[in-house]
Amino acid sequence: MVDPLLAIEALTKRFGGVVASDAISLALMPGELHAVIGPNGAGKSTMIGQLTGEIGSDHGRIRFGGRDITKLPVYRRSWLGLARSFQITSLFSDFTALDNVALAVQAHSGHSFRFWRAARGEAALREPARTALDRVGLADRADTRVAALSHGECRQLEIAMALATRPRLLLLDEPMAGMGPEDSARLVATLRALKGSLTILLIEHDMDAVFALADRVSVLVFGRIIASGDPAEIRADAAVRQAYLGDGEGWEHG
User: Fold this and answer.
1) Edge-to-edge strands of the sheet including 59-64?
2) CB 206 within 8 A of CB 221
3) Per-residue CA distances from 174 to 37, 51, 72, 99 (Å)
4) CA distances from 247 to 221, 227, 240, 241, 244 (A)
5) What span, in angstroms and rounded, lies between the C-alpha atoms of 212 and 47?
6) Residues 9 and 132 in one domain
């Protein structure tokens, strides 16, 4: 039997009297796209922060690739193959898309940014950057300045930057946020193409995207997972409908 790539056991985080993560247990199998949904304030972003190491946990354990990473810092988790898209809060708007991804390759490999001018022509950085752009459908935008990219293309670029680090697990925190229908459809197609080649944990409010992409869905409410299953099971779960969507309206159109 195949072991989970990511196993979360009783993960807990309190902020004063608020329990943001309430004994969360979850397992992601290799190649799985697992979506976590829930209302605002459910604790989704806190959980992502705990997985990346940006937020310490009060209790519980995180195992990645069979290794306990609960106490490891962010950079050590990154080296092991855990990447979070949108962790970089601002792109270099005056640089091209290719430049931005090459910088991600350079940063992950531990090279200094002070040699960036020379590194712009370094094949060891540019080639994996071009490959990452191609995987997210931005190959034809490689030489376009970020300032000229659409909001949706910037989200795709951030995913390319994460892919350039060659992750085993990609954490996506609401990638569809702020997108129009056309950009959302393009990103759904991008993520569908990535399915199976790496493991993806998707935090998302767009139900159309979730049910189009996810192999399994977990529902987080008040820091606790109340249901986990395939999309059909989650759609039919009465407790999920009551806790997350009231009378169940909105499943079809987010």
Assistant:
1) 18-28, 6-15, 59-64, 67-68
2) no
3) 10, 16, 25, 25
4) 16, 17, 10, 6, 9
5) 23
6) no
Give the pLDDT confidence of 184-228 residue by residue, as tens digits.
999 999 999 999 899 999 999 888 899 999 999 999 999 999 999
* Residue 53: strand, helix, or coil: coil
For residues 54 and 135, give the distance between their C-alpha atoms in angstroms, rounded to a whole number.
Answer: 27
Same-domain status, 5 and 107: no
Does 31 share its domain with 74? yes
* Each residue's pLDDT tens digit, 28-47: 999 999 999 988 888 999 99
Domain boundary among 166, 189, 220: 166
Question: Cα separations (Å) of 94 from 91, 98, 103?
Answer: 9, 12, 13
**46 vs 127: CA distance, rounded Å:** 35
Q: What is the pLDDT of residue 251?
A: 44
Q: DSSP label at 144?
A: S
User: What CATH number has the domain bearing residue 254?
Assistant: 3.40.50.300
What pTM value is reported for the model?
Answer: 0.88
Give the single-character DSSP code of 177. Answer: T
- Which residues touch 176 (CB under 8 Å, ≥6 apart)? 155, 184, 187, 204, 205, 206, 209
pLDDT digits (tens, 9 = 90+) for 52-91: 999 999 999 999 999 999 999 998 998 899 998 754 456 8
Name which of 23, 27, 25 is nearest 169 in CA terms.
27
Domain range for 229 is 1-81+168-254
Total tally of structural domains belonging to the chain: 2
The rounded distance, in Å, linking the Cα atoms of 85 and 159 is 5
